[in-house]
Design goal:
The complex is a heterodimer of chains A (350) and B (391). Chain A has 350 residues and is mainly beta. Chain A contains 7 helices and 21 strands. In chain A, strands 12-11-14-19-16-17 form a 6-stranded mixed sheet. In chain A, strands 1-5-10-9-7 form a 5-stranded mixed sheet, with no helix packed on it. Chain A is globular, with a radius of gyration of 25 Å. In chain A, 43% of the residues are buried. Chain B has a 4-stranded antiparallel sheet with strand order 1-2-6-5, with no helix packed on it. The longest helix of chain B is centred in the middle third of the chain and has 31 residues. Chain B has 12 helices and 8 strands. In chain B, strand 1 and strand 2 form a beta hairpin. Classes of the chains: A mainly beta (350), B alpha+beta (391). Chains A and B meet through helix 1, helix 2 and strand 4 of A and strand 3, strand 4, strand 5, strand 7 and helix 3 of B.
Chain lengths: 350, 391
């Protein structure tokens, strides 16, 4: 009965001005929070991360960066790390590519001071970027060194028993087990792979995904190529959403270490969205536009834009050149994701 | 028999010392060996943080955290309304019951809600909700002056107003005085229940580190016992059993302790911007608390207290609201507040017990019809004036 309680009265009472009181009220006319001069000193405040900030200067982690050495990977290196596998020729001249991929359970520092119990392919998030050419024969030996059952499910065209789906073909690969996924590289384009064991959302959210690129028969024009896998971390594993968003493993990483590119050079971004729990993700580039090739399965762009939206599993190739020098931000144009980690910088130099 | 010999050989204090030493050794052994015999906990660490105090200044949010759980908690990162923020403080893990203040860098907007999510080193998320952001008043002379004014409006003036009725009460006959005393008991009973409910409400916000609801009962029990002791002392000094002056003093003390808690609630409501200042507040409390003044003077209808004594009683009953308001607006936390609400409850219960004998009629019957009527009227008046001020 709120009416019977004086607390209720205190909280809800209507304010009729009373002569003596307002005059003595401190902050009776509260000054809105200062919007100028706020950044003063923040660059030097210990515990704030990148130089841009905190507060009105944008989101930031306390404590700068994570321990990449302990993690065993650095997003700056993952960016341009393409794994072409062990190459040999099959009788008849076809190219055979072989990989060995391990599933592991691993603790990763995903934000300064915050450890995430990850499930990974080859001890990294995202897993290795497997790259081949259309028509190659692919052999992926998958070893499950994790304590949990896993599979590798590739996007692409292949027989059912090579699909890495529970109950089909070999199905689930139990801990300690291994299996060779073997299929042809079709169709050319930008694809992905991920674990498909249930609960699927958890297996993906824990970090079991990677990029799978099939180059067209004729090379695309030479470019500074990079992979960006958009994903998140549900740090408390409640399945209700993500506390952290990132590209290539560590939130805000490219805020601290801007991606260095050359002015005028063609830049090609293989952009993949595997974000779990949120329906869509997006990519927006500042100060520039790009040609967009959805799924990379056609050689003609469908769009010239600065923002693309991708649902989970969608991917596409962005091609652009930076005409000007300087730093250009890129981020999810879902501001919430951006301010929870999914943002970074390009730095254009001569 | 041996015991006289033992007693002779070992003075009492030695026996006590030896007993304590044996108990200490046993406890130490149990702690060292016993804990090893038990398996590790099967679950993950239990990470709990309670925000005991929030202070907002332009572009800064200051939170005083307390670890209310069993395990150490390391704050890793913090986001406010889905934005990661830079912050200082809590760089080391917080042990059980340890407290630490973090300062967040966030351009909050006046009046808007804030959801603060604290990520621990294990990725657990501890949320703290600020329903409406309001700049926290700075504890300076102006604030203190305001709290004195508020305490005077809601405590001192209403009580004094009620005491003004003394001459009217004087003209009443014995039976009417009994009814008025019954009315007072009704008022006090209402206040006790009201304070208990508020105290338990507050205790729920403390995270339970200091006992949660137990704090209210602890405060009530201690206040009850302390006031009983005070009463025994006064009784001894005056040599009478049912002195009206003493009863008035006890009622004033009880109501005073209650008003301390009330002031605390008002002060802290002001500090978080939830207190609507204005005529409604002052008039409402005048109506609601005037009854308290009435309660103080009812036992004095057959006495001739000096004006100074009356003023003293009034201040004793009303002025603690000032102290409460000042503490509430500056340093109070929910645990202290719930303890003080408990103190108010205990004090009032003690006073009720004091008054009860005076309710007996000539035949020695306690719950006569007029007394029942008075009790009911007291409860209903408090309820009704409570409703009135809630409008």
């Amino acid at each position: 009965m709120p009416g019977a309680s004086r607390r209720g009265f205190l909280l809800g009472g209507a304010g009729v001005a009373l002569g003596a009181i307002p005059a003595a009220v401190p902050n009776a006319d509260p000054t809105p929070p200062a919007h100028t001069g706020h950044g003063t000193g923040h660059g030097t405040t210990p515990g704030t991360g990148h130089s841009h900030g905190g507060g009105i200067n944008g989101p930031t982690f306390r404590g700068g960066t994570v321990d990449h050495v302990a993690n065993g990977f650095n997003p700056t290196q993952l960016l341009r790390d393409f794994d072409y596998g062990k190459v040999s020729k099959l009788p008849g001249g076809r190219t055979l590519r072989e990989w060995e991929i391990y599933a592991t359970d691993r603790e990763i520092e995903v934000a300064p001071g915050l450890k995430f119990e990850a499930w990974t392919f080859n001890n990294r998030i995202p897993g290795p970027t497997l790259r081949c050419r259309a028509g190659d024969r692919l052999r992926v030996r998958f070893v499950n060194a994790s304590a949990h059952p896993h599979t590798m499910h590739f996007h692409g065209i292949h027989p059912a028993e090579m699909d890495g789906t529970p109950g089909i073909g070999r199905g689930v690969i139990e801990p300690g087990g291994d299996f060779v996924y073997e299929f042809d590289a079709v169709p050319f384009g930008l694809h992905l792979y991920h674990c498909h064991v249930g609960p699927l959302a958890e297996h993906i959210a824990r970090g079991m995904y990677g990029t799978f690129i099939i180059d067209p028969p004729e090379d695309r024009p030479p470019a500074d190529e990079m992979v960006m896998v958009m994903h998140g971390f549900n740090t408390n594993f409640d399945g209700q959403g993500n506390q952290l968003y990132a590209v290539n493993g560590i939130p805000f990483h490219y805020m601290n270490e801007a991606i260095k590119v050359k002015r005028g050079q063609l830049v090609r971004i293989y952009l993949v969205n595997v974000l779990e729990y949120d329906p869509i993700n997006s990519f927006h580039l500042h100060g520039n536009f790009f040609d967009y090739y959805p799924t990379g399965t056609r050689l003609e762009p469908t769009e010239y834009t600065d923002t693309v939206v991708q649902a989970q599993g969608q991917r596409g190739i962005c091609e652009l050149r930076f005409p000007y020098l300087g730093k250009y931000m890129f981020h999810a144009h879902k501001s919430e994701f951006a301010e929870l980690g999914w943002m970074g910088f390009f730095e254009v130099t001569e | 028999m041996k015991s006289p010999v033992t007693r002779k050989l070992l003075p009492g204090w030695t026996l006590v010392a030896i007993t304590i030493a044996i108990a200490a050794v046993a406890l130490t052994a149990l702690a060292v060996l016993g804990s090893r015999a038990l398996p590790e906990r099967t679950g993950p660490p239990v990470e709990e943080l309670t925000v005991e105090r929030t202070a907002l200044s332009p572009s800064t949010i200051e939170l005083t955290l307390r670890n209310t759980g069993p395990d150490a908690v390391q704050v890793a990162q913090i986001f406010v309304n889905d934005v990661y923020v830079g912050f200082t403080g809590a760089t080391e893990p917080l042990g059980r019951l340890a407290t630490e203040t973090v300062r967040l860098d966030y351009p909050w907007q006046e009046g808007h809600p804030l959801l603060i999510s604290i990520l621990t080193s294990t990725g657990a998320v501890i949320e703290h909700d600020i329903p409406a952001a309001v700049a926290t008043p700075v504890a300076d002379r102006d604030l203190l002056a305001l709290m004195v004014l508020l305490g005077t409006y809601v405590g001192v003036i209403p009580v004094a107003l009620g005491m003004v009725f003394l001459p009217v009460l004087r003209r009443a006959g014995r039976s009417l005085v009994r009814i008025l005393l019954a009315l007072t008991v009704g008022l006090l009973a209402f206040l006790a229940v009201d304070a208990a409910v508020e105290g338990l409400d507050l205790a729920a916000q403390t995270g339970g580190a200091f006992g949660g609801p137990i704090l209210v009962f602890l405060g009530a029990a201690l206040a009850f016992l302390a006031l009983t002791a005070v009463d025994r002392f006064l009784q001894k000094r005056s040599g009478e059993t049912a002195d009206g002056q003493r009863l008035a003093l006890m009622i004033a003390i009880g109501i005073g302790l209650h008003n301390l808690g009330e002031g605390l609630a008002i002060g802290s409501a002001y500090a978080v911007g939830e207190l609507a200042l204005g005529a409604a507040l002052v008039v409402g409390f005048a109506l609601h608390n005037t009854t308290e003044g009435l309660a103080v003077v009812t036992p004095l209808t057959r006495q001739k207290p000096s004006l100074g004594r009356l003023a003293g009683l009034g201040l004793l009953a009303g002025a603690p609201a000032i102290l409460g308001a000042a503490v509430g607006a500056t340093v109070s936390n929910a645990a202290v507040a719930s303890l003080l609400f408990g103190v108010g409850v205990g004090a009032i219960l003690q006073v009720i017990i004091q008054i009860t004998p005076a309710l007996r009629d000539q035949a020695g019957k306690l719950l006569s019809l007029p007394v029942l009527g008075g009790l009911s009227a007291g409860v209903v008046i408090m309820y009704a004036t409570g409703l009135l001020v809630a409008v």
